[in-house]
Every structure is written in structure tokens, then in C-alpha cells.
Specification:
Elements lengths: L1 E2 L36 E2 L4 E6 L2 E9 L2 E6 L6 H14 L10 E2 L4 E6 L4 E6 L5 E6 L5 E6 L4 E5 L5
Antiparallel strand pairs: 1-2, 3-4, 4-5, 6-9, 7-8, 8-11, 9-10
Amino acid sequence: MDKEISLTLNYTKYNPEAAPHFITDDLDTEAELGDCCDDVYAHGAQNLIVAYGCTRAAAHDFGKGRSVYLAGLPYSAQNTRLLLRALCWAAHSEDSLKHWFSINPATECSYYPATGRYAVVNNTMEPQTTTVFKGDASCFETELAPMELKWYKIEERT
């Protein structure tokens, strides 16, 4: 990442266009990453989110490692999902994302191995529909009332 400090204003800036990426795959609206950090550019990294011509999120592979840059991350269901996807990608664990996972960012799936159960919860005051992925990557769809919590046994599908 480079930060422009007004010494090269007459030079062409780096490519400020965002590209598709695993981290931003399921963003359903424009990401809200807090206050803009002006004049920050991805140099050698892939732009994921660009606002006002500045890089707001970027990712970079280097050797066996990976790095993620986020300009800011105020709390929201969508930003929580963005952070989860960034952590999975940085850890080379993209395949683990869809194990005990709910597609809808307004809902969550939590697995409790000692009890052989898992829970799906709606974190909003509105009804939600979501697809839930179990530990074996099989999935099912469920509907949840506002703030509803549903418990399932591991062998249950719905």
C-alpha cells in the first residue's frame, strides 16, 4: 500500500479499479468501511474495494503468505462477514468457510461438538431466510422469525 503525501501530485496514480475476489464475493451492497483514508493506493496488491479513487480494501499474495488491507471496519452484519471471509482467505482456508455457515449475513450458525448440536439464529427484528451449510458441506434452507433461535441435532437437516 502507498499513501500519497503530496510529493507526486503530477504523476499518474496506480490503477484504482476493484477486481472480483473471494473476500468480496457475497457483498450484497456497497461496503461501508468507515471514514475514507484519502490518497491510499494498492501498489502490487489487488484492489477489492475502491471509493473516491482510493483503495479501501486490498489483498496480496506473497510467498506462502497472504495479507489483507482494510481502511476501517465499523460494526455491521455485512462487515462481520467481510472480516470472516478476509480471515479465511488470509489463512488459506477458503474451503472451511462453508462448514457450519449461514449464507445470510443477518443470521449465524454455531456448532457445539460436545453436544452434537448446532444452532441457527436470526440477529434482526425482521424475518429471514437463509441457507445453512453443515459440517459435511451439505446444506438446507430455513426460515427464521425475528430474533429466532433454532436448535438442530447433527443428523437433522431441517
